[in-house]
Amino acid sequence: MSFFFCLTNPGLEASLKLEMSKRFPHWKLSFSAPGFITFKGEGKFPDRPYLARYWGEVLGKGVLEGGEVLRLEKGGEWTVKIHTPRPFWFDAPEAVLPEESPSRAWLKIEEAIRLFDLSVMTGDVAMEVGASPGGAVMNLLDRGLIVKGVDPALMDPRVLKHPNFTHLKKPFQELTPEETSGVDWWLSDLNLAPGSVLSHLGRILRSVDTKPRGLILTLKLAKPEVAAEIAQHESRVQEWGYRTCVRLLPSHHKEVLLLAIK
Ligand SMILES: C[S@@+](CC[C@H](N)C(=O)[O-])C[C@H]1O[C@@H](n2cnc3c(N)ncnc32)[C@H](O)[C@@H]1O
User: How far is the CA of 135 from the centre of ligand 1 (A)?
Assistant: First the structure.
């Protein structure tokens, strides 16, 4: 019998357990504390769960030889072998949300760009659906991108007055082919069910001549059941001709990143 652990973000424990039970049913829940869950099973370890920030092998409870010690606020000490490559924020300070940012979404895009070393460049065109109040837009404008923000809600006035910003103040389902053409980076941060977002996005992408280089999609996990659908959403985006990766970022609450690169 082997044991492995997952570290997830607070509030996503039930989603992670559901994801595991669907994707890797042979691995059974063993121990659960806030943000830390262990599973037991036989044979090869499964692939990294989508909703694990870190994962790896559990060597045992308490402080043992040959591993690293996790000291949990609630859940005790565990000796583990971490399998995930250490992302930048494990050893270095995390990206910090600037005071002037209109929202936490500044941090989500910052972490995605840094972690995947995304080639967002001055002069690239980005479109964000679900853009209000404008944290992610502000980040991209500061990086020199030309940004279109789609949202029926109000944008932060500092974003609105930026010369490289256009507000399309309507639901993204009403975008026209002219408005969606010539986009390098497509961002989605809609508080809507991921299945319905991807259906509309698929339709839009079929209507453009050149697909965006990258899709940076935040899938909202409003209820645990949505976690069981992530694999399906990832396959759908791959069918559009993209390589994909699903990753839980440090700033995520009930959501996960689906990154797609052409
Ligand atoms: C999490 S907030 C977006 C935060 C934003 N990305 C930022 O950087 O500040 C979700 C947004 O989705 C918008 N939204 C919901 N349904 C929408 C739709 N059908 N079309 C466009 N925006 C929509 C909401 O108005 C809300 O502002």
Answer: 11
Please write the tens of the pLDDT for every residue from 166-203: 999 999 999 999 999 999 999 999 999 999 999 999 99
How many Å lie between the centroid of ligand 1 and the Cα of residue 193? 12
Closest CA to 183 of 146, 220, 237: 146
Look up the CATH number of the domain holding residue 8. Answer: 3.30.70
CA neighbor of 188 nearest in space, from 238, 233, 128: 128
- What domain count does the chain have? 2
The boundaries of the domain holding residue 67 are 2-85
Residue 95 lies in a domain: no
Pocket (CB within 6 angstroms of ligand 1): 102-103, 105, 128-136, 150-153, 171-173, 189-192
Same domain for 146 and 26: no
pTM of the model: 0.95
Residue 96, in any domain of the structure: no
Helix (H, G, I), strand (E, B) or coil at 95: coil
